[in-house]
Design brief:
This protein has 124 residues and is mainly α. The protein is built from six helices and no strands.
């Protein structure tokens, strides 16, 4: 069972790892990661299509979905493996974790106070 102290320590350690990504996020290339990496590796769309066992049009669709942010993780994994890459998915909180926890606690407390004050105004 995780104690409050363990949770706080985990939050602190995670925050230290996330602060760099939050402050200096790696924006995707204009052409998307797949096309950019494929091109940098000197691989044509036809070559990638052959390695993925799909059509050249399917590669075009994959690269468009990558640019638009609609590509599935399953397809990303398959393409990453084919390109000799690792797929890393990172959820980066927009604010420090401690701030998010405090804001949520404040929302819960506010809701509870409102519920309590409404009950005291309108007794049963």
């Amino acid at each position: 069972m995780k104690t409050q102290a363990n949770i706080h320590l985990l939050r602190k350690q995670l925050e230290a790892r996330l602060v760099t990504e939050r402050n200096d996020p790696m924006a995707p290339p204009v052409d998307g990661w797949i096309r950019t990496l494929r091109t940098a590796l000197g691989m044509s769309a036809s070559q990638l299509a052959r390695q993925l066992d799909v059509t050249k049009q399917a590669v075009a669709n994959i690269e468009r979905a990558d640019r638009e942010g609609t590509l599935s993780l399953t397809t990303y994994r398959k393409v990453a493996e084919t390109l000799g890459c690792q797929l890393k998915v990172v959820l980066v909180p927009k604010k420090p974790l401690e701030t998010i926890v405090m804001e949520r606690a404040r929302q819960v407390a506010t809701r509870l106070v409102r519920q309590t004050s409404q009950r005291s105004i309108y007794p049963r």
